């Protein structure tokens, strides 16, 4: 069975975990790891037998067999990479908060975005909370949604720490654009607790048509959809209705492919990105694919 070749830019924690997820895919084939220095991630990919480069993006732009590129660098870097990938005819899966392309949350809006060339994966907090915000809005029409993402400090690498402002801005906007809330707000907390905690996300919504049964049914449906590609995603506190205020708490346990299981924040955005890439691969290059 023919697989679609992909490259990963950025051999850090996110890029390395993506590599292991791609290795498990029935649809995608790991073809290149791209970095700018001889790093541990580059050596890891090389030891696994994959082509690597430390010359940056230029070395893969001319590789016609590579159809999809995951960019796991940073928001500023992706602003440079995005036009180059587009000109080269490659589909970009943007793991940064740059938001060059439309926000995509697989279980909510992927089916509406299949003709795009650049897919923004929002943020880890966005992947964990936007589906719940969407479910609440579908059932009760949200005028305001606020989320608090609490992650283990150990799971927040330099990329995450450097992009905290972009995280809050991008996640807040995605709660509105994809989640449907009239107004959104996002907060991230890095928790230094030992042992490290699982990613925990609290979603607060003010709704116009409070109906606990409809909200609970809608949230339960979307949780099942997320669990198809993130098995460690679960409700910690089902919807609680207090007047027009809804509270939901979800927890994310990572798959442990490369990163520790407490790194659910990185796991969920990577799992969502692979879900997007696999769907694109089937739809656009699907001949011979399962």
Question: Could you name the key traits of this structure?
Answer:
290 residues; alpha/beta; 5-stranded mixed sheet; 39% helix
Question: What does this protein look like?
Answer:
With 290 residues, the protein is α/β, with parallel strands linked by helices. 39% of the residues lie in helices and 26% in strands. The protein has ten helices and eleven strands. It has a six-stranded parallel beta sheet with strand order 3-2-1-4-5-6, with helices on both faces. A five-stranded mixed beta sheet has the order 8-7-9-11-10. α1 crosses α10 (264-285). The longest helix has 22 residues, at 264-285. 52% of the residues are buried. The mean pLDDT is 95.
Helix content: 25-40%
Overall pLDDT: 95
Could you tell me the strand content as a percent range?
25-35%
Biggest sheet: strand arrangement? 3-2-1-4-5-6
What's the total helix number? 10
| Poorly predicted tracts of residues | none
Structural class: alpha/beta
Order of helices and strands: EHEHEHEHEHEHEHHEEHEEH
How would you characterize the largest beta sheet?
6 strands, parallel
Give the terminus-to-terminus CA distance. 8 Å
Shape: globular
Q: Strand tally, please?
A: 11
Radius of gyration, CA atoms, in whole angstroms: 18 Å
Topology:
Layout lengths: L3 E6 L3 H11 L4 E7 L5 H8 L4 E2 L4 H4 L4 E6 L3 H13 L3 E4 L11 H4 L8 E3 L3 H17 L1 E11 L5 H5 L1 H14 L6 E8 L7 E9 L4 H16 L5 E10 L2 E8 L11 H22 L5
Parallel strand pairs: 1-2, 1-4, 2-3, 4-5, 5-6, 7-8
Antiparallel strand pairs: 7-9, 9-11, 10-11
């Amino acid at each position: 069975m023919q697989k679609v070749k992909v490259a990963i830019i950025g051999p850090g924690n996110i890029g390395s975990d993506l590599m292991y997820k791609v290795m498990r895919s029935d649809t995608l084939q790991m073809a290149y790891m791209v970095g700018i220095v001889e790093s541990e991630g580059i050596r890891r990919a090389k030891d696994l037998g994959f082509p690597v480069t430390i010359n940056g993006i230029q070395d893969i732009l001319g590789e016609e067999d590579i159809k999809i590129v995951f960019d796991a660098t940073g928001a500023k870097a992706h602003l440079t990479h995005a036009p180059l990938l587009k000109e080269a005819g490659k589909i970009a899966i943007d793991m940064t908060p740059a938001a060059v392309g439309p926000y995509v949350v697989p279980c909510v809006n992927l089916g509406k975005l299949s003709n795009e060339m650049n897919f923004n994966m929002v943020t880890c907090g966005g992947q964990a909370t936007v589906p719940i915000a969407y479910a609440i809005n579908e059932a009760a029409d949200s005028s305001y949604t606020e989320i608090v993402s609490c992650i283990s400090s150990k799971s927040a690498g330099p990329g995450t720490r450097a992009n905290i402002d972009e995280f809050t801005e991008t996640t807040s906007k995605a709660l509105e654009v994809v989640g449907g809330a009239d107004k959104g707000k996002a907060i991230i907390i890095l928790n230094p607790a030992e042992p490290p905690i699982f990613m925990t996300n609290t979603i607060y919504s003010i709704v116009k048509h409070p109906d606990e049964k409809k909200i609970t049914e809608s949230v339960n449906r979307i949780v099942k959809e997320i669990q198809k590609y993130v098995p460690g995603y679960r409700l910690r506190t089902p919807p609680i209705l207090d007047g027009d205020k809804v509270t939901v708490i979800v927890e994310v346990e990572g798959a442990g492919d490369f990163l520790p299981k407490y790194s659910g924040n990185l796991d969920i955005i990577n799992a969502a990105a692979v879900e997007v890439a696999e769907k694109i691969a089937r739809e656009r290059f699907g001949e011979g694919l399962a």
